[in-house]
Amino acid sequence: MPVTARRTSLSRAVSQLSSTDRPTGRTLAKHRRTTSKPAAPRAAAAVLSVGLAVAGGAALSIGTTPATASAATMTAAQQRGHMSIPSRPLLRFRDSGPTVKYVQRALHLGPDGYFGSSTVRVLKKFQASWGLKATGYMDKNTWGRLTWAAKHKVLYGKYGASASSGTTTFRAKVLREAAKLKGTPYRYGGTTTRGFDCSGYTGYVYKKAGHKLPRTSRQQYSATKHISRKAAKPGDLVFFRSGGGGVYHVGIYAGGNMLWHASKPGRPVAKAKIWTSSVAFGRI
Q1: Is 198 marked active-site?
Q2: Where in the chain is the domain with CATH 3.90.1720.10?
Q3: What is residue 239's three-state secondary structure?
Q4: Choosing a second label site near 70 at 20 to 30 A (CA), which of 22, 92, 130, 189?
C-alpha cells in the first residue's frame, strides 16, 4: 500500500476513536480546566459600585456608614440635642439628645433627654435665681452659669422670690430666732437681749440666722433687694416709710399682714399687725 494511503487510513481511525472515547457529562467536567479569571469581574463590580455611589445611584446606601445615615435623618431638634457641650448650643423646648440630658442632670432632674415642660419650668427658676432673663431655653449666658453651678455644686443663686431651698431655710431660721425673743424689753439703741430698738432687734435676729445687717433701719433698707408686697415672704424685712420717703422703722415680716418687731418704749418684742400701707419690703 502506498505511504499516502496508509497515512489517510490511520488519520481516520484515530478520528473515530477520539469521537467514541471522549468522556461526556460529569466525566467531562472532571477533566475540564477552569479558564475564568474571577478577579477581573470583581474589580469591575467594585468600580461600578463606586461609580453608582458617586452618581447618586442605588450603590450609595452600601457605601454610607450607619452614623452618617442617622445624622442625615435627624431633625433640627435632634441635631441641637446632639451638639457638643463646649459649643454651648441653643437648646429649646422639644429638643432631644445627650446634651439635653446633661442640662437635666445639672438641674437635678431625671435625665430622659427630652426638653419638655418640666425642664423649661426648672430652667426658668434657675435663670431667675441668678439674675438672668427667665426664657426657659439654653443660651450662651445660661450655659456659662449652669456649667459653673454644676462644677461648684450650687444650683440656685440668691435672686428671685423662690430662689432655692437654702434661701427658704434661712428665712425659716429668721422666724425661729425672732420668736425666741418675744417679750424682750424695748431699749433705745439696744442690740442685745437686755433690750432692743427696732433695727437692733432685726440685726440681732439676722446675725443669729447667719447674715449680718448694717446698724440702722435706713442702712438696712439700702442693703436689701426691694421687692413688692405680693412677692414678700415670711422672714423678709418690712420697712415703714414716712411721707417724705424716709425709713423710720423696721421689723420682720411674719406673713398674713403681721410682723415681729421692737416697737417703742414700754412695749416688748412681739408679733403685731402692720398698721399702715406705707411700707416697703426688702430681702437679703
Answers
A1: yes
A2: 165-283
A3: strand
A4: 92
